[in-house]
Task: inverse folding
């Protein structure tokens, strides 16, 4: 909003008075919102009739045209779990290394950050092929939920590291000095001082990454596979929600109804996870961040 | 909170500069940041259990001077220093000096209260645990003791597990002092500890500083000349000459404020120069 205000300030006074500028901004805002609501209403409208308890708890039948999506939900949850369990510690550790131990303009930190920038902008299908070669073939994990989760981890790791690094850098100098003046070790500083401060921003970055991972299709086609049976373990192949949507719309004639249902369910799941993570961190953090003044 | 009268309790305990053994000796200290010199040729002898005020206009290197003593200046890249600082006869500016021990022995209070985002109790115990106190009874005893020392115990005894960020600014600053003295330091460095506080809190902190000087040697940077006069036994005046901070006068507070030898000091304490 500040940026908008600055732009508005540049506009001559008379033009401002003419309502031309403000109506222009209103129009763009309304257009973006309309586009979003159009998509959402289309998904809700077409997907709502597919939703039922059977749809959530049953196995798919007839290539997904009928039946439910229970195994697909389980596979998706497993893939996301593996993805977050691997990325979170790695991202926080790497971010802490860059932010705390290496000076900001040291060439090593510049190299790491440039590489992360590039990695963050690589198309997901490239990650899929990479995961296929490294996890499925070289490490012998085959088409499995584990390979899929690890590939997604590689994909969202750069974004997560970059946002966490920013967070650690923005932690006020006051805490840094305070911790240093008490001769606290880096370990204590990270776990007891920085992490509590950083939790809200880290969560925001994590939700962003998790959203991207949930919506990912291309990277999973080559790694976790297509199989829509209930997985026995993480070494089984499993179909993620996004792949199910892709498959139903592209390869299964007459499957679009259930595809809409799956899409609606995916949006609901994302909404629920995001808001519950937000709620949890706020609750947990409320006691710590509330300022008196 | 009711005691708002200005006191001069330190008048009686003022120590003559020459008698006592020097706790902190600074010899020809110069600090350079990048290529710019910010402090030149500072020499000071600071006796044990005294309060030394450092006054002077902004940007004359007072804070950099303090951060040299506890080596927090290491956090600022591209800073070089020359000269010598001896704390208890041990060289401070030696690359081999034990920074952990040094910072345990030198407590630091910052301009803005900076309690950690955790409970009041944890704020005090985090450093104690880090430096080897494990017994929870002992931890609680020290917590209680230091909170009493800073006069905070009665105010917070029923909410020790509440976040320290819920405290008022003055309480937070006293908590930071409690946190520092929990490690049983010998020297307390205070970088404008009252500048972010209201007058009542300032009064409480000033009384506290005076009380603490019986056990600790205190070095306090302040912009408040009246405060320097009220609480300190000796005063150092820093002044930027051509952008380089210098120590232009150093002596007993009474003498600095009543018969300053340096013309700049005389003008500064009368408010002619800012």
Result:
């Amino acid at each position: 909003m500040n940026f908008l205000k600055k732009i508005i300030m540049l506009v001559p006074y008379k033009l401002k008075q003419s309502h031309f500028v403000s109506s222009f901004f209103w129009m763009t805002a309304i257009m973006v919102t309309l586009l979003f609501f159009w998509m959402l209403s289309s998904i809700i409208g077409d997907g709502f009739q597919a939703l039922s308890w059977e749809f959530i708890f049953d196995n798919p039948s007839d290539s997904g045209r009928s039946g439910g999506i229970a195994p697909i939900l389980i596979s998706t949850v497993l893939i996301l779990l593996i993805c977050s369990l691997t990325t979170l510690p790695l991202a926080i550790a790497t971010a802490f290394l860059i932010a705390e131990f290496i000076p900001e303009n040291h060439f090593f930190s510049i190299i790491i950050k440039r590489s992360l920038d590039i990695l963050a902008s690589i198309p997901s299908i490239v990650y899929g092929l990479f995961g296929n070669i490294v996890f499925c073939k070289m490490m012998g994990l085959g088409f499995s939920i584990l390979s899929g989760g690890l590939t997604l981890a590689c994909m969202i790791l750069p974004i997560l590291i970059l946002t966490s690094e920013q967070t650690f850098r923005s932690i006020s100098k006051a805490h840094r000095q305070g911790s240093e003046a008490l001769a606290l070790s880096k370990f204590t500083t990270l776990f007891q001082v920085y992490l509590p401060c950083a939790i809200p921003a880290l969560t925001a970055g994590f939700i962003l990454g998790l959203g991207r991972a949930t919506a990912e299709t291309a990277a999973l086609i080559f790694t976790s596979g297509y199989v829509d049976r209930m997985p026995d373990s993480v070494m089984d192949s499993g179909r993620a929600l996004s792949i199910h949507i892709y498959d139903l719309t592209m390869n299964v004639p007459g499957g679009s109804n259930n595809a809409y249902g799956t899409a609606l369910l995916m949006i609901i799941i994302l909404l629920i996870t995001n808001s519950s993570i937000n709620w949890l961190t706020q609750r947990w953090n409320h006691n710590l961040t509330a300022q008196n003044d | 909170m009711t005691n708002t009268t200005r006191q001069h309790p330190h008048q009686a305990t003022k120590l003559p500069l020459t008698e006592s053994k020097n706790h902190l000796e600074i010899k020809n200290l110069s600090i350079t940041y990048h290529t710019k010199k910010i402090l030149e040729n500072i020499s000071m002898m600071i006796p044990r259990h005294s309060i030394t005020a450092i006054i002077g206009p902004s940007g004359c290197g007072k804070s950099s001077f303090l951060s040299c003593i506890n080596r927090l200046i290491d956090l600022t890249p591209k800073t070089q220093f020359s000269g010598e600082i001896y704390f208890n006869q041990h060289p401070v500016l030696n690359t081999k000096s034990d920074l952990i021990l040094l910072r345990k022995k030198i407590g630091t209070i910052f301009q803005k209260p900076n309690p950690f985002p955790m409970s009041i109790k944890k704020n005090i115990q985090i450093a104690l645990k880090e430096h080897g106190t494990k017994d929870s009874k002992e931890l609680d005893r020290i917590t209680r003791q230091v909170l009493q020392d800073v006069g905070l115990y009665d105010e917070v005894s029923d909410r020790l597990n509440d976040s320290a960020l819920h405290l008022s600014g003055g309480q937070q600053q006293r908590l930071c002092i409690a946190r520092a003295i929990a490690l049983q330091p010998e020297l307390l460095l205070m970088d404008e500890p009252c500048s972010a506080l209201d007058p009542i809190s300032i009064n409480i902190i000033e009384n506290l500083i005076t009380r603490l000087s019986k056990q600790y040697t205190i070095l306090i940077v302040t912009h408040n000349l009246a405060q320097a006069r009220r609480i300190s036994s000796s005063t150092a005046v820093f002044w930027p000459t051509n952008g380089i901070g210098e120590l232009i006068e150093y002596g007993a507070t009474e003498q600095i404020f009543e018969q300053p030898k340096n013309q700049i000091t005389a003008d500064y304490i009368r408010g002619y120069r800012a």
Summary: Chain A has one domain: 74-292. Residues 256-289 of chain A form the longest helix (34 residues).
